[in-house]
């Protein structure tokens, strides 16, 4: 686990395991509506009914996604797993091929990292799918393992039958929950493991709290029509907050407070939607604590990552902080503020604001007396250069896509490439693809030469 994250309490009172299903149908319906909306479609439920399954033969640390839909959970777990493998584990030099015990430990720690994001002082919950002892409804392989290799071989349960076989365990501390999770991690690698983990997170955070966070967007965590996870679900997995917004902090718009991302995340997020100018991802998601980013297309999520730690920034530069302050006075992001607002802007940045100096700055930045000051003119005057970030001339990057059809030879495996950030004056490459477009929202001049004959896909 990341030592900078919340320390697990080892001295709290021993918890009592409930080991029973949902206490009431009312609670089950409330949870169901929050996740699925008013109606659970059987085909969508079946697409989400897989476990955390690794591509053991080809890429032992890569999770498989069999159908479109559950990438919001699977990709987030994959991202946190890569964080453990690359930066927090003893097997980081052999991160692609840990032994089974090491992999189970890293998977457990990955799930715990996400638990920490949503955890409060309330009771913690862990859910497992526990079928009847005869397991008659679960098809088995030759070795008694659940068949999870394709959606067609997965158990055909309806949603009510699934709910009836869920067992809920309660804990007073995350440390006690971790012990139970370690003992039963293999269950999460079987059918329904993804859903059980998602339900565990939601009960741990609290239904009421998540409902309040979802009120702003008015959407369920899983799109009831197409079955993919919402932005609210992605943000819940990455940051512990089920907001649909990706900007930093909170914004006040015509008296309505919109909740954004409050702090720097461990794993980052970039989206093709920003490249298309429909949104702007804030510093907190663009600059995570580890060089790992979830990449979003309109309907799917993948992971871009590197071992190169110079790609991350621990703190915002002075120029970046100035841009944030400027936007507070330019909420519609027109790229300018009124000259009359200059004093308030400069005061927010602790710049000198005595009248004589202020008049001089106004005259210098608003030379034509138009009554406005542009953002670029203000930044060039007070923050001409941000702190330099030293990045190697070339560095290795990887891309993960959990859908086999989107990979080389239709096998889920990490795509490897050599990346560089070229100078603005250099001639950019002529190739264009969705991954490059998405990455350009953070690195406008990035160029990547991928190994193999197939360029990785966002979809």
TrEMBL record:
Top-rank taxon: Eukaryota
Keywords on record: Hydrolase, Protease, Thiol protease, Ubl conjugation pathway
Known EC number: 3.4.19.12
InterPro entries hit by this protein: EF-hand-dom_pair, EF_hand_dom, MINDY-3/4_CD, MINY3/4
One Pfam family hit: MINDY-3_4_CD
Keyword flag Protease: yes
Record-level GO BP terms: protein K48-linked deubiquitination; proteolysis
GO terms assigned for molecular function: calcium ion binding; cysteine-type deubiquitinase activity; K48-linked deubiquitinase activity
Keyword Transport: no
Ranges for domain EF-hand: 317-352
Main enzyme class: hydrolase
Catalytic activity, reaction form: Thiol-dependent hydrolysis of ester, thioester, amide, peptide and isopeptide bonds formed by the C-terminal Gly of ubiquitin (a 76-residue protein attached to proteins as an intracellular targeting signal)
Function: Hydrolase that can remove 'Lys-48'-linked conjugated ubiquitin from proteins.
The family this protein is said to belong to: Belongs to the MINDY deubiquitinase family. FAM188 subfamily.
Protein name: Ubiquitin carboxyl-terminal hydrolase MINDY
Organism: Brachionus calyciflorus
Phylogenetic placement of the source organism: Eukaryota, Metazoa, Spiralia, Gnathifera, Rotifera
